[in-house]
Amino acid sequence: MVSWEPQPWIRVSRKLTEDVEIAGTLQNGDTGPIAGSSRFELISGPLINLKNMHYEAAAVWHGSVLIVTKPGQEQPQLRLRQLGSVDGQSGNAQPQTVEGLKLYEDPAKAFWRFSLAVPVETFEARWEYDIPGLHNESGDQVQAPWEFVVPAEDQSMRIMFHSCNGFSVGTDMNAWVGPNLWNDVMRVHSQRPFHVMVGGGDQIYNDGIRVDGPLKPWTAIGNPHKRRNHDFSNQMRADCDDYYYANYVRWYNTEPFRTANGRIPQVNIWDDHDIIDGFGSYTDHFMKCAVFRGIGGVAFKYYCLFQHHMAPPKSTFTTDAPQTMHAVNGTSGVDPRQMENTYVLDNQVEDDSWITGKRPGPYVEERSRSLYMRFGKRIAFMGLDARTERTRHQVNYEDTYDLIFERLQRELVSAEGDIKHLVVLLGVPIAYPRLAWLENILTSPVIAPIRLLNKRFGLAGGLFNEFDGQVDLLDDLDDHYTARQHKRERKMLVQRLQELARSHSVRVTILGGDVHLAAIGRFYSNPKLNLAGENDHRFIVNVVSSAITNKPPPKAVANLLARRNKIHHLDRDCHETLMPFFDKQPGGKEKSATWNKVTMPSRNYATLTEVVAPSLTGSNGIVETETSKLEKLPKDGHAPLHKGEVGAGTNHRAADGFTAQSGMFGGLDVSVQVEIDPQDRSAATEGYGFSIPPLLATEGPPQTGHRLSLHSRRSHQGRPSTAQ
User: Fold this and answer.
1) Smallest Cα–Cα separation from 535: which of 697, 307, 679?
2) Which long-range contacts (CB under 8 A, 24 or more apart) does 23-31 make?
3) What is the pTM (predicted TM-score) of this model?
4) Which has the higher per-residue pLDDT, 560 or 651?
5) I want to staple 301 with a disulfide (CB 3.0 to 4.6 A). Which of 28, 312, 641, 709 is the partner?
6) Is the pLDDT of residue 449 over 60?
7) Contact present, 721 and 491 (Cβ < 8 Å)
8) Which residues pair with 170 in a beta bridge?
9) In a domain, 94, yes or no
10) Are 103 and 113 in contact (CB under 8 A)?
11) In terms of domains, do 564 and 591 share one?
């Protein structure tokens, strides 16, 4: 196990260690060498993932466990048994033995996946697994077993959401105690278990590849033309492959993140830092350069293995092999040199949770992979892969949105009304203050002379990025759904979600990270329509929780965003703004201005828990259920839009993150746990809470009159758009 300590990149040796014998040469399709004994040398893991839940004949929980070991070892086995219920009931499920499936092996490592299928009980069940024979590199036996919790058949999952789990290049490491907030995650998990943790992107930061890794010489090339036209040779690919693998092992072996990885099933979608800062949002001609396309392929390889427990492509992009430079049947062509002494699982069956794009991304020779799965009985989840298809002017292809909404429609119909909440992961916030004024400044002619002085004399060096010479902040702004070039796509996506909510009476809630601060955005119907929050299909909360590890922005930035928190108009019938939420500074530590109630610049994570039973008993012994109905509807979103937002903050009954006693029956209790002091290794947090009501009824006609297309220039029902 590795405790937090900043470490430089150390190249992974591509030679076998002396104690491992290779009995012959690995070729694709072989099962690989069988040598040694039942002693397995663990490099990284175990990592547990949620794959899906099925409710056909009998409810079944599907997941997987991944370990990385030294190569040339026998097939490992995983032992799985039920420990009974969380509250102490004894269980009756039969123990299982699961054979490891080799996903990938080369002369330095082997990846093994154990696929789990667990019967769902009438009670919330605690399960235990271990992998006999595991030893760490020092020779000590790995401490086991590991436990995870599966919800009861009539229970929805308790969700933990995080993003930005790493550090940007140049962070003052003396000011931040690593991934410390995971200590608080495990504290809350011990109070009431999480069934799933959702990674909203940037689970790992690979940006150092250009600072102390193999892209450092390329980044240092002063001539932009030479940099764009630089080859991505097979040797450069191998060096980058070593870097990404070593960085994953280093970070995923870092405590306390490592502890959480083996005990709380994960569901992840990637973002730019999982590849490199700004990937997809630089200028098109630069994004198409060989080096960026090359690292996109290598990053995708290890994203598949570590974050999704699936076999990677057989080869990734390199200019030495033309067949890899363009996708063949939706993936990179095979380079025999990359397959030397390497095994990749062939013809793998893809998870039924995948929603796979029809065509490769513009800069990665792979198709997008969005996710759909059940989070227990009444919650469905959709995670949008908003990076594989991204360019500066689009987030996703239009046909990808069609695939996603066709899947959602099909699943909601087949659930026959069981699903009451749809949780949507977008990674980047979508209900967020506009920054168009800043975009205008950074792209205005006034920047041109500063850029010239930067090229000649290095003036304002921190203002411009070392890739395409643009203002460094622009790639972050271009990532936002609220950026001017994504405005139409954003509107289309929100309107389609609202129509889905209306037609199926399902409450949509969006999770987003990326921006390194916490906030709560909401879309809601124009108050003139006189729709109460519980009846409003347009009411969609965007829980913005970021970062769990990276440093927050300065107070001035958070305060500036708060001042920009105006009432915006998605269309004639839908408004949006941030909710006043942070009623006080966390633990009395000043993080932002005292008047700033909407943005919190401190490390944080979020929890979402379904409220399954009334929690208040009146003096007459009658159970009283909280309702979301307000006595008087608000004038705008600067006031509470329903009872669940009244008293939002530290005094709300959802603030602790685990009791779920707000009384909002059928709704979701949401908390954001905010770090008080980054130097405090106990990771004490201040909790802020509110509730989201179920969609009790819908009103009004369907939003027809358009297909909600990216190319539609008109608002719904044929009226001109008034979006701002």
Assistant:
1) 697
2) 23/72, 25/340, 25/341, 26/105, 26/106, 26/341, 26/342, 26/343, 27/339, 27/343, 28/314, 28/339, 28/342, 28/343, 28/344, 28/346, 29/346, 30/343, 31/102, 31/343
3) 0.89
4) 651
5) 312
6) no
7) yes
8) none
9) no
10) yes
11) yes
